[in-house]
Structures are given as structure tokens and as C-alpha cells.
Amino acid sequence: MKRTVFDDASYGVAVQTAVIPVSITDRRREDGANPPLIESLQARYQIDAFPTLIVYSPRTGRTERARGFGGPDQTVS
């Protein structure tokens, strides 16, 4: 996803003009645990699979979520 969406010239620009992207890496498999802040974010937003995209609007308080990677076009839409 990083290579095909966020680092891509056209998709990356589209995403960065619409949202502020934040990437969080789950370290359970590599390190056996996550730092407390990561655990807190995963619990708060009920993330149980990677990748999970969450778009939060501070203006409305609404969130939209997408679980899994459906390709660059779906991610940007």
C-alpha cells in the first residue's frame, strides 16, 4: 500500500490533499508486543486486521473504515 498508493505520484497527491495520512505498524509478530500508545489506538478504533484504513472527520466526528487492501483506486476513493 505504501508503494502503490502513498508513494505513487498521482495517488499520493490525491490522498495527501484529502487527508493527513498516519501509518501505524503492528509490531506483535516482530517484537511480541506493541508500545502502549499503539495498543491504545488499536483498541480505540477496533483494529483487528492489517491494513485497516480509518478516515476521521473532525468537523463531523464521523469515521469511515476500510479493512484490507482493495488496490490503489479503491483506497483513494
What does the model show?
The chain is built from five helices and two strands. Helix content is 43%, strand content 13%. Strands 1-2 form a two-stranded antiparallel ribbon. With 77 residues, it is of the alpha+beta class.
Radius of gyration: 13 Å
Mean pLDDT: 87
Number of helices: 5
How far apart the termini lie comes to 14 Å
Number of domains: 1
Query: What is the overall silhouette?
Result: globular
Please identify the structural class as seen in this structure: alpha+beta
Strand content: 5-15%
> Could you describe the largest sheet, including whether it forms a barrel?
2 strands, antiparallel
**N-to-C SSE series?**
HHHHEEH
Oligomeric assembly: single chain
- Strands of the biggest beta sheet: in what spatial order? 1-2
Helix content: 40-55%
Number of strands: 2
Low-pLDDT windows of residues = none
Structural features:
77 residues; 5 helices; 43% helix; alpha+beta; two-stranded antiparallel sheet
In short:
The protein has 77 residues and is an alpha+beta fold. It has helices at 2-6, 9-18, 28-31, 36-44, 72-76, and strands spanning 52-56, 63-67. The chain is 43% helix and 13% strand.
